Amino acid sequence: MKVRVRLFALHRDIVGTPELELEAPAGTTLGELWQRLCAQYPALAPATRSILYARNEAYADPATVLQDGDEVAFIPPVSGGAALPEEELFAIRSEPLDETALRRAVHTPQDGAVVVFSGVVRNNFAGRATDHLEYEAYASMAVPVLRALAEEARARWPIGRVAIHHRIGRLQIGETAVVVAVAAPHRRAAFEAAAYLMDRIKEVAPIWKREVWADGSAEWVGSEHERSRRPDA
Fold first, then answer.
1. Which DSSP string corresponds to 116-185?
2. What is the pTM of this model?
């Protein structure tokens, strides 16, 4: 069968043409066709984790079986923001967190729901005025822990991609301390997995919070899990 391949942006520059006509055996999938292109043009391969697949001008799963005469496209990251590679879905960061980027990073065409939870610094705890928070993490251990928690959630719910970023350093009132993004075909699984992940982060992630009160005193919370048991946590 013959398939028309449309190429855009960086992909077009690598291949040197905006479209190709390829011969493919019957039963070839979108994903297999992409792998054939990567074998022919190795510079395409690093984009594999961030592309989206399209068949006849509609997003499609890479497992979609192609038909003779199909038009396909392998969509590189669009101008609204690049998708994060797999190794950057879990991170400890000192700079402000980007909720929108994580939502884009986890969503795929087969997902009907994306739940994004953002934990934000508030101005008090249990009625006591807070000036700011300071977070510290054992980052080289925390990132694998976050990744392992995502696998725990996948074992419990039918969800897709997960991203978790946690901020460290000094955070002012209103700044985002943690973002958990979960994509899934259906909303219930996404909601339940996101809530579970936040609870587990508080229980096991090696991340500590120092609350600096408005009166100038400070307190290391130490165990997020213990604090979550206190009133108004």
1. EEEEE--SEETTEEEEEEEEEE-HHHHHHHHHHHHHHHHHHS----EEEEEE-EEEETT-EEEEEEEEES
2. 0.64
